Amino acid sequence: MAEKKRARSGSPSKRRKKPGGASTGLAATELQAAAPPHEVAELHQTIDQDGGKVLAVYREPYGGRWLVLAALPIDLVEPTPYQRNLSETHVRKLETVIGKIGRFLDPIIAVRLSKPDHAAKYWTPNGHHRLSAMRTLGAKSIIAIVVPEAAAAYQILALNTEKAHNLREKALEVIRMYKELAQLDDSTEESYALEFEEPALITLGLCYEERPRFSGGAYHPVLKRVDDFLTRPMREAIATRRERARTVLALDDEIVRQVEALKAKGLTSPYLKSFVVARVNPIRFRPKDAPPLSFDEALDRMLKAAVKFNPDKIKLDDLAKSGGAPDDAE
To answer: If you count Cβ atoms within 10 Å of the first and of the last residue's Cβ in the chain, which end, N or C, has fewer?
Structure first.
């Protein structure tokens, strides 16, 4: 009976989606079976005028949208200005592999997004490391799948295939995109839900900008539950986002104070900050049928609990039972 009870209470494992009953998309013979629309033909001509070479024009097999496979002059391609910084280790690895096998086999994604203050005419949302490696190796051109829709330049998190993002990288990319998109029109945050992935990343991005060594992983589980997309235009909502970031950083100041007090007692653990945050988390033992807390309510309760936190009551056994991710696992 005990074994059966444990099995029921354990979290159910996620099952992989089964293939759909009916096939969808295009057959292989259909990818080039129609004439491309005017805007795609125009892009073909523009690439040629830029000194590139179109290798194929086709529709991708799932959604049937048009794409252009092209060789682009490498000097005209740049990473989108709001994505994560280069990982030197990853770039060096790519340089070694490409140089060793003598082949570049993984095209980057690019959009033509010419801006008057930039020499580059093509922006890649997911090819920063490959582009850098090819430049270092002295390549004159790079193969790209050019997407006609400029919106693809902002779909960094969805399109990235190079290197898994950690939380800091995700949050910084999101806030950089946010600031860029806020200047374009009166769109709300929810309009870019795919690009931003989740509202907590916007707030965390501002925290990381203010405090680069901020341990966002300790607060992310709480923020995922209480942060939400704001309904005002982003150019106005950014003020609320900054206020939320200040609230999180003020809480972090108090948490750090309590962590230092635990260290002074001789308690050492890579989980100290996560442990204290979990102890003051008002959602942790909240009944499932209780109304959800807003961002302000949750953070206000956390700050009050952090101020009242008593390090003298914490024992080494308490830390050992806490588990979780290390505070610096960013």
So the answer is: N
